[in-house]
Amino acid sequence: MTEEEILVLKKNWKQLTEKLKDVFEEEPDLQTVIFLIGVQESGLLARSFSKEEKTNLMHIATCKLLSYEGYYSFSKTDEEGWPHYDKRKPIPAMSLKEQDIMLKKAVLKYFKDSGFFIPE
Questions:
Q1: Do residues 61 and 41 make contact, with C-beta atoms less than 8 angstroms apart?
Q2: With bands split at pLDDT 50, 70 and 90, how would you rate the model's confidence at 1?
Q3: Entry pTM
């Protein structure tokens, strides 16, 4: 990404987290946003989740987000209502910064597609 694209990403990310802050009363970090997407994608109501369920919700969200780049695709919903994804191609090795950028771009797309957030 160019320096300009990174600045736009940072600006859009800040706008999204500010909007989420209005809903949740504190500005969420990337992990919290991924968890929220997992809850949304699972269709489970907001409640207390076990540590294993939280891990599963974050996995669901990550698969959904990586599906935008073709790394995963939705497979099915199991009998308990949990979505499942199939891996389509290997994820290349990336630095933590590159992973962060890829996930933030995908999160912004997710919220834009949902109609919740349209970057300025």
A1: yes
A2: confident
A3: 0.91
Say how far apart CA 51 and CA 26 lie, in whole Å. Answer: 22
Write out the DSSP string of 21-46: HHHHSS---HHHHHHHHHHHHHTPPS
Q: Which 3 state secondary structure label does DSSP give 25?
A: coil
> Residue 47: its pLDDT value, please?
77
d(CA 50, CA 38): 14
Question: Beta-carbon neighbour count of residue 24 at 10 Å?
Answer: 13
Distance from C-alpha of 98 to C-alpha of 79, rounded to nearest angstrom? 36
- 8 Å CB contact between 68 and 109: yes
- Identify the H or E element spanning 76: strand 72-77
